[in-house]
Amino acid sequence: xxxxxxxxQKYFNxxxxxxxxxxxxxxxxxITLWTFLYFIILAWLLFSITxxxxxxxxxxxxxxxxxxxxxxxxxxxxxxxxxxxxxxxIVIQTVGINLSAITILAGAxxxxxxxxxxxxxxxxxxxxxxxxxxxxxVGDRIQVGDVFGDVVSISLRSSMIxxxxxxxxxxxxxxxxxxxxxxxxxxxxxxxxxxxxxxxYKEDPEKVKLILLEVAEKEEGVLENPKPDVLIDDxxxxxxxxxxxxxxxxxxxxxxxxxxxxxxxILKKFRENNIEIxxxxxxxxxKDTELQxxxxxxxxx
Length: 301
What we know:
- 14% of the residues are buried.
- This protein is of the alpha+beta class and 301 residues long.
- It has three domains: 2-116, no CATH class; 134-183, SH3 type barrels (Roll); 191-272, Alpha-Beta Plaits.
- The strands form three sheets. Strands 6-5-4-3-7 form a five-stranded antiparallel beta sheet.
- A hairpin with a 2-residue loop joins strand 1 and strand 2.
- It is built from nine helices and ten strands.
- The chain is elongated.
- It has helices at 2-19, 33-61, 69-94, 103-116, 118-133, 174-178, 205-218, 255-272, 288-300, and strands at residues 22-26, 29-32, 141-144, 147-154, 158-163, 168-172, 181-183, 191-199, 229-235, 240-248.
């Protein structure tokens, strides 16, 4: 029996000696294999606990409030990162590492990382501003630069926009802060479109107006209130230019389709009523003196 306990004691001593192997030094602190494993275990627990804490804050603690989900996510993320930083400081001190030994190294790394991560930091700050100020939100129809589509997700670094072609476009959040953004549904999903239509000068403007209003009233995507309206926009070189003004809330994601449907019906009604749509014409006047000069040159040649 004594031999058995001696073997167990020897085994634990061997394990202790193995975990006491010196790996490297940080300042005056000696890092052993046990120190390294102890730090990894505590760090893993810290990240797991903070992830669960974030979910609890977002979906439990703040779920009963009227705070938007995006704001709740931002608050939960900020709290998690704050707890992570504080927890990592405590863990480092717990394992016996002197923080003053890595202050200079951390400062140098911080300067280098700061220059290298300026864009990322800019996007993170922009993401926090977006989540709190809410200039855009999930479900909005927006246009930023040449990207036009629906916002499907907003994160701290970037946002996802889906176009009408079902293409996912990832836009850095800084674009929404530094660039001009058109939000088609920020406060109201009712949007007015102006449909240009030109007819010949011989046509009766009042008749054209009635036809355009009839077409607009029959289109399902056009709202009855506010009512459609027709204005004479311009007296062009070869046509009277009308503007059919219609309101819609269901077709802001497919304005091209709405415009096409209206034009199909307008062309049909114009043919039924013999309304002429002119095309640009130019008259070319050639002076006789220029013709005479040309003839003279040809005869000489």
